[in-house]
Write a structure and sequence with these properties.
Layout lengths: L3 E6 L2 E9 L5 E3 L4 H5 L19 E4 L4 E4 L2 E2 H7 L2 H10 L5 H13 L5 H8 L7 H15 L10 H27 L12 H10 L10 H14 L6 H10 L5 H13 L6 H14 L4 H9 L20 H16 L5 H15 L1 H5 L6 H11 L7 H22 L26
Helix pairs in contact: 2-9, 3-18, 4-7, 5-6, 6-7, 6-11, 7-8, 7-18, 9-14, 9-18, 10-11, 10-18, 11-18, 12-15, 12-17, 14-17
The structure holds acetyl coenzyme *A (ACO).
Acetyl coenzyme *A binds next to helix 17.
């Protein structure tokens, strides 16, 4: 028998259905609440609100579990490639050898971007923030590849748009980086796999052949896999809600990129390094900065600590911490900023303030350190997060469409002025 809960309002009892997920997560279905009772629920920041039923990613923040399509993140990060994970997220199953070959070939076929679009790209000042460029460039893809506008009617056009977006993202992201250096852009080469092609366009040169270190390719694969999806976070919810209006994939993802930019979300990886640099410049006294983070009159927060959902540990942080140690050792990098990060982590993990509030290092505490070791400028970090998150956004947008979800439109509780009469400007 299906479970229900009882809600009593003004002595009247209402039965509300309970929905149970495959991992035994429980939700009270309030979709008929307003019709039945006239009430809505209020949940600022959606801390208790399930916005959808999804079969893509499961995470248990209390225990520290993350799985894509049922596969533990530890196995995927240890054994698969980013492109395999992208396929898994978007199409629902791990690809066969033929399927991944075909997927890679289709993507390689579309990595170039329209030369007219390059003119648009050339118009950005070279010192403009990479995230501002990325959001505009991704949105502009709909102008250069108009079949994306048919995403409501045509499955073929949706499939093509997904491939083009995955393909062109690597070219766009690497070109933004090249532009920041004032260097000429490097064109994609079809002989490379997805991640190597991206690194070739990023670190390659026109004047000589640059061999991409396999250590760097492996590190990049792990980083991108760890960021590939994270269920209904701020940027993903944005992609779904924009897409729910039947906006095309490019504009929905562009909106997600804007949401990711903020320092409380994807921008945290940039904010972590900026914070560590600041602490270093200030003499490296970590105790002083921990005290500032605890002081409620001081707006300073320990960037890279805390998470809306993980209240035990972030499983991605565990994997990335090891990857971080490995890559710094392999590349022979001795970074003072990393020493400060380690000291901060050590002190914070023993401090009752952080223990009581369950504040642990999140994935972004370490990702910035790795990106820095690989030679990326700080402002590129969030763009790299977006490159990793792209398959997740696509999978979530596709699922939302396939589920035929209605347009997202939350309610509110109005608390403003009631019944004011207009006063002429001369009398105010
Ligand atoms: N440093 C110091 N104190 C903190 C921190 C922090 N980083 N994070 C939370 N707290 C404190 C809050 O002041 C609050 O204390 P109180 O209960 O005494 O008022 C308590 O911990 C709970 O914090 P909330 O902000 O209510 O938690 P919420 O779940 O809303 O926020 C968030 C989560 C935004 C991630 C927060 O922890 C934060 O700002 N962290 C730093 C930014 C960051 O690293 N963001 C990346 C998140 S991961 C990602 O997006 C990929």
């Amino acid at each position: 028998m299906s479970q229900t809960v009882q809600l009593i309002i003004d002595n009247k009892t209402y039965e509300l259905p309970v929905i149970t997920g495959t991992e035994d997560e429980k939700a009270i279905d309030i979709s008929k609440l307003r019709d039945l009772t006239g009430y809505v629920t209020l949940d600022i920041g959606y801390k208790n609100t399930g916005a959808t039923k999804s079969a893509i990613t499961f995470l248990d923040g209390e225990v520290g579990i993350l799985k894509y399509r049922g596969y533990p993140i530890e196995q995927l990060a240890g054994q698969s490639s980013f492109l395999e994970v992208a396929y898994l997220l978007i199409y629902g199953a791990l690809p066969s050898k033929d399927q991944i070959k075909d997927f890679q070939a289709k993507i390689n076929h579309h990595t170039l971007i329209h030369e007219d679009m390059k003119k648009f790209f050339d118009g950005f000042p070279s010192n403009s923030h990479p995230m501002g460029q990325l959001t505009a460039l991704i949105s502009s893809l709909s102008a250069f590849y108009p079949e994306s506008l048919n995403s409501v009617q045509s499955k073929e056009d949706v499939d093509l748009t997904i491939i083009k977006l995955l393909a062109k993202m690597t070219t766009i992201v690497s070109w933004i980086y090249k532009k920041s250096l004032g260097h000429p852009v490097i064109y994609p080469q079809n002989k490379y796999d997805y991640v190597t092609n991206y690194l070739h366009m990023t670190f390659g040169q026109r004047t000589e052949d640059v061999v991409i270190d396999p250590v760097v390719v492996d590190a990049m694969n792990v980083l991108l896999i760890l960021h590939a999806d994270h269920e209904q976070n701020c940027s993903t919810s944005t992609v779904r809600i924009v897409g729910s209006s039947e906006a095309n994939l490019y504009s929905s993802v562009s909106a997600g990129i804007s949401a990711l930019w903020g320092p409380l979300h994807g921008g945290a990886n940039q904010a972590v390094i900026e914070m560590l640099e600041k602490i270093k410049a200030d003499g490296g006294d970590t105790d002083k900065w921990i005290a500032k983070a605890k002081d409620k009159n001081d707006p300073f927060r320990l960037m890279g600590f805390g998470h809306r959902v993980y209240k035990n540990f972030d499983p991605r942080a565990k994997i990335i911490k090891k990857a971080c140690d490995d890559i710094l050792e392999k590349l022979g990098i001795d970074d003072e900023v990393l020493e400060i990060a380690k000291r901060l982590e050590e002190v914070a993990l023993k401090d009752p303030y952080f223990i009581e509030r369950k504040l642990y290092p999140n994935v972004d505490f370490y990702s910035g350190i790795i990106y820095r070791a690989l030679g990326f400028p700080t402002e590129m970090f969030t763009v790299l997060f977006a490159l990793g998150r792209l398959p997740g956004w696509i999978a979530q947008w596709k699922e939302m469409k396939e589920n035929k979800e209605p347009i997202g439109r939350p309610r509110q509780i109005y608390v403003g002025a009631v019944d004011q009469d207009y006063v002429d400007i001369e009398k105010r």
